[in-house]
Amino acid sequence: MENQVDNRFTWVIKNFSSLQTSRVISSDQFLIGGCKWRLVGYPEGYNKSHDYFSLFLQVADYTKLPPGWRRHARYLLVIVNQNPDKSSKRNESSKWFDQKVPGWGLSAMLPLTKLHAKDGGFLVNDELKIVALVNVLEVIGKLDVLDSEVPQETTQPLKKKKLVEDSEESSNLVNGTPPVNETMNVINGFQVLPSQVDIVRRIFEKHPDIALEFRPKNPHLRNAYMNFLLTLIETLCQSPGKLTNEDLVEADNALTYVKASGFKVDWLEKKLKEIREKKEDEETGQTRIQELEEGLKDLKEKRLEMETQLEKVKAKVLAARASLTLDDVV
């Protein structure tokens, strides 16, 4: 039995003792972050880890994905101890999944002695409960399905497989749901266009806490807020001279709107303040330039007038200095 809510997937394996002869078992596919996943378990250990129960998170149908695909995800795998007084077994990590390494987890996840202990708490009524939390950080290549089309809850029977590499498919959790035609990239849980990848990646690299308190869960709202943020940044990247006072007022309103969603954008608020100050400096400077230019124009006109008067005076002086001729005297 399986259950999925948001980025949390629960796999309850019934009649676990009857699976000891199975080399590998897997859950049905589940969809998180627009990507198909599955859990893969080895009841008697993977490879040489014969004394442990092995557990992995794997990209479903990875052999059918186009070349060059990659998925970056942070995950938490938990083998639940159903005794509230005892600790569960956890494995948390952040990994890139690709064609060479389509699955990550632990070969030595839980010792079989602890798993089968009578009062160990892991097996209750011959049921083993496993929980996976997956946060898709970035996707290179096409998404398997839109987040808005992921069902909130699914229940599927357990399926057995001979090898983890087998391409045999489990029941599709989204029967009738067409694949995404448009190429999208997922960065820290936000779907963005290829043209937006660099700037969004740069935002999260420089401000990793920007979305820690981001509240919207609906993928369409998440995309809308991200696009709003990108538009605001694009506006602020313009020269202050091209921004009108109305533009700055709208930018301030947009910043308030973005902050209300939970985005931590104090750095952007600081930049907007700097731009507003630059705009004021520019306007003040432009006014002063006009005043100086007008003053310089007046000075030039006065200089021209004085130069004209000077030439007239010089002419009179030269005339006064000239010697008289005989004709002038007689």
From TrEMBL:
**MATH domain: which residues?**
6-134
- CDD domains per UniProt: MATH
The reply on keyword Coiled coil is yes
User: Positions of the region Disordered?
Assistant: 156-178
Its domain of life reads Eukaryota
Its keywords, alphabetically, are: Coiled coil
Show the Pfam families listed in the entry: MATH_2, PEARLI-4
The residues forming a coiled coil are 265-316
The name on file for this protein is MATH domain and coiled-coil domain-containing protein
From what organism does this protein derive? Cardamine amara subsp. amara
The upper taxonomy is: Eukaryota, Viridiplantae, Streptophyta, Embryophyta, Tracheophyta
